[in-house]
Amino acid sequence: MNYENPLIVQSDRTLLLDVHAPLAEECRNALIPFAELEKSPEHLHTYRLSPLSLWNAASAGFSADDAVAVLEKYARYDVPQSIPQWIQEISNRFGTLRLIPGPEKETETKDKDGKPIIEKYLYLTAKTAPVFKEIGVNPAVKKYLCASTYVEPAGAEGAQKLLTPLTEDEKQYCFLLHLTDRGTIKQLLLQAGWPVKDEVVLQDGEPLDVALREKTSGGKDLVIREYQRGAARALVGDKGPGTGFGTIVLPCGAGKTVVGMTIMDMLKTSTLIITTNISAVHQWIDELLDKTNLTADQIAEYTGESKTIKQVTVATYQVLTWRPDKEGPYPHFSIFHERPWGLIIYDEVHMLPAPVFRVVAELQAVRRVGLTATLVREDHCEGYVFSLVGPKRYDVPWKELERDHWIATAECIEVRIDLPVSQEIDYAVATVREKHKMASQNVEKLPVVEEIIKTHPEDKILVIGQYLEQLDQIAKKIGAPIITGKVANAERDKIYADFRSGKIRVLVVSKVANFAIDLPDASLAIQVSGTFGSRQEEAQRLGRILRPKERTSRFYTLITRNTVEEEFGSNRQKFLAEQGYQYRIVRYSPGCEL
Fold it and tell me: Which domain holds residue 125?
């Protein structure tokens, strides 16, 4: 028992962190690999141990013993006896089931040249008989299992390298399944509480001589930061079994694009990059031309405006999920099979749409990486990212990069504004959705926006919101250009370029600018409305102003007092507090300090 320690470990698997204790910051960083933050008010932050958080840790080499050691080191009181036992039990589930290479069999079906089509199989092995039996009777899983026999591969070619040799038990408790069901089975078993350790060697794609430049096309030295190299190494590994797939979590502004290009440099293979919008596609292409030896002839854009495929192709999620008939097939999914891709980069992987998950489930033989600032998904489908794209391989705390000046120092301010008296009765009788819209579009927010802009003349400012009518009014009032989904892509790119060059100082943007937009000089953001309580959106919007710079960035959120917007706002703040940011709350009145 040490009353100076910051952590209280409870038997319900929650962890309470006293933020005022001497070792609080050190403890917070130690918890990141294996615990999830749930609540973060002023004095005690609540973390929770979950199966997914422990399996992510185990997949990155962070063992159950490591997790228990952290708890025992920082615990103020004795760690409840049940907690270490539960951690060991849950962590040990990772690796109980393994996917390994299986046999190849000729089928009676012939290809166009008259040769028999080769059907490839995998083995799903279990360490114990009870797990083997449990999997075999799972109704969702068993329809994908072909047999329960293991045949020792013949010859040196068949005996592919495994992370660890099969035990005699694993050979006995072994299922056979089709290679094409690899992703589906991993997804189903995760839902059943059994994460699969995938040890099937990934296929090498089409070779491509891609390399990072020593100097950018503009003549500047290209310096890859150590954490960027570390993230790339964590993904690529030794190119053996169990490597080459996973998710990298880095703050907005920390250079995730550079991490992606570093992985391309290490693998030197044909690459498909999928991102959120056309502006992001163009940014990826510009970065590739600026920082690698690739030429424009080697890079293609696959969007609503241009559909070509080359050795490096950059596409949008939007075009991939388009289909002429809502019940019909997705015609552009063929892009995944057009070339022998050796790497697929899922930019902003937390945005991965459900239809694309189906394709990702099939593409388990291709090296793949998800890039994101946060794995938070409001639909709670983080498990899909874990099982299909890959577990979290690398994560750096936002405040750690801020401390090292790799991202900007940021101050978060919530400005609470009264609802006009004339709307109070209408608000009282409205539905929840109507209340959120009324509070979000509070007309009293407009003069506050004007005042913030006026009092920060040195800043380059983004005004961000959800409702187009509100944004149009603000843009007209302050005389600033506006970017929404209605603005043509060529016009968007021109406005972004004018903002970067300093021709314009204030820009109004809708949620189309939430993701993958590089505006390095933006130093102040005013959020006038948002998507209910989305923590994911909060992270992305703060990220617009986190490019490293000398001045402190400021993130203002305008909230209507005593409304549902205030309630949703507290959930949005949760992510920022999770990263170590504190909110300063201002109740607005004319002349107050903003």
Answer: 97-198
